[in-house]
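Support request, please re-run this one:
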Amino acid sequence: SEERLRQSAKMEAIGRLAGGIAHDFNNQLHGVNGFANFVAKDPGLGQRGRQDVEEILKATERMADLTRQLLAFSRQQVLQPETLDLNVAVADGRSLLQRLIGADIEMALELSPAPLWIRADRAQLLQVLMNLAINARDAMPNGGRLTIGTASRELVGGEPGPAGAVAPGRYALLAVSDCGSGIAPEHLPHIFEPFFTTKDVGKGTGLGLATVHGIVAQSQGCVWAESEPERGSTFTVLLPSVDAPAPSLDEGPPHGLGLSRRGRVLVVEDEDVVRRVVTRSLEAEHYEVLEARNGAEALELCSREGGSIDLVLSDVVMPVMGGRELGERLAAEFPGLPVVWMSGYPRDAAFGAGHDVEPERFLQKPVRHELLISAIQDALAAGRSTRDPTPLA
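Re-run finished. Output below.
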């Protein structure tokens, strides 16, 4: 309908805005977090100063969580999908959900007798359950009953209602129902909009249901709500069904873990604060670091330095020459040179659809020091086993 198209366009526009804000915010947050970590490691720092720095680090974690929520509802979160049974995921989260809703609310699980295999990010699926459970708890301030049910559903074309917007096929259905205050009819069309809330000031961000909508949409599913005032609400999620996973073979420990050979790293980053933090982090681990502000400078350095550069650590969105073009040029001119990417945008948003960048070669800012060093160690190890021994120049 025209109203559905209008609503979809509005959510898309807000999502693009949120994604852009989160990108810029993550760049600056990377700098704050990085320099605060450097201060925290100063052996001359007093007890009071150390406590202050720890509070700064805690605040950066909370800010990072907020940007992850913004990216989730804008469908730009980095997902790590796996094949899992929806029933098992719900059952595994039961104890956590019960602690969230409190002892005065009874929780009942009504799970499908057969496995419901889906392709989803386990942590993000738990986030959906948590947000829906919290929403139900707030609708039942005097206690009540929360019911979480699962079922298999086959959709055919032309079905009425919200499910009519979903492609035909097999789906796993997740329903979260409460017996609370319900949602007013005039509010129901807006509940998945970011920052829409009927709660008092200071008691809600308006991101909970928007986050649910974004995670479900990014997983190729849909979510909708049915409610009547004083008669409770039911939130229904549909996620595409997949075949049961094949038995996996034991592949042993991940390749490259524990290797610590140092090398020469070219850092390509246009944001000065991020480049300074990354350089200092690498130098603290005894890597030799070269710096470039964009892809063009990086190519010039690679040509000048010959085969002495062991790895390139590059941002994706940069002026003059961005990371995508830089990657293509490096692959053609310096085959086998390992590249690790980082960005304030998630991987899909940074590279676009159809990219072939491995998840383990991509870091989303702000990047923890340990994760940065681990990714570089693994990329160097893999590069040493595959790289052409001939010089680059």
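The two ends are 59 Å apart (CA to CA). Residues 201-205, 248-261, 387-393 have pLDDT under 50 and may be disordered.
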